[in-house]
Amino acid sequence: ESAAEELRVLCIIQDTTNSKTVNERLTLNLPASTPLKRLFEDVASKVGYMNGTFDLVWGNGEDVTDTTPIDQNSDKTILDAGFEPGKKNFLHLTDKDGEQPHIMPEPGTTDDSAQDRFIGPLPRECSVGCTNDYVSQSYSYSSVLSKSETGYVGLVNQAMTCYLNSLLQTLFMTPEFRNALYKWEFEESEEDPVTSIPYQLQRLFVLLQTSKKRAI
Question: Do 51 and 34 form a contact (C-beta atoms < 8 A)?
Fold first, then answer.
């Protein structure tokens, strides 16, 4: 009888990590006594992500200004955490620490199934200066899924820097230029690393090539 009389909390979750899912909504009608841990488990099960690889933040509900991720490890119930019974509680599913959520592997698949998938610029044959182009077959399954579907790393817009980001990505995707830059050696005794444009560009290219984040 007490279970039947318990307050229910309606949660509407929007997955903002992917352009294909941003217009979809997941609706959960949960007992008010549901622990936060169980909320994350239910969301992970419904959307097919590995639990612990995504964050939930308050969405566009009325009077919601806190964008701090909800604490998954808290012992609070959803009622104690500020969810309101009888109302729509809007949540956004977001990247965790800048990395895209990991998709739950399908039954019967192993990590080896993705070992041969190449990430990064493809080597160009019969081109001068491309003999040392970067090729790696050692990426793990999780690192494949933490990037975008293309396997490339983006650049965060620093407020109207889209034109510069496009130029940097174009230079990075030019193997002759990228390899020449990698061969250049920085002499710290002669120049300040903070003000050295070739050094900072070299660091940026390494991050574009090796980072597990969607954008840097």
Answer: no
pLDDT, one tens digit per residue, over 99-119 is 888 888 876 655 544 443 334
Burial of 42 from C-beta contacts in 10 A (0-12 / 13-18 / 19+) = middle
Indicate the pLDDT class of residue 12, thresholds 50, 70 and 90. very high
Amino acid letter, 14: Q
- In b/e form, how buried is each residue of 127-161, taking b as 16+ CB within 10 angstroms? eeeeeebbeeeebebbbbbbbbeeebbbbeeeeee
Query: Residue written as tokens 């660091």?
Result: 203
Per-domain residue ranges of the chain: 8-95, 161-210
Handedness of CA 16, 19, 23, 27 (dihedral sign): negative
For residue 184, which phi and psi values (nearest 5 degrees)?
-70, 140
Q: What is the pLDDT of residues 171-199, one digit of tens each?
A: 999 999 999 999 998 887 778 888 899 99
Rounded to whole angstroms, the Cα distance separating 16 from 201 reads: 30
CATH class as words, domain 8-95: alpha beta
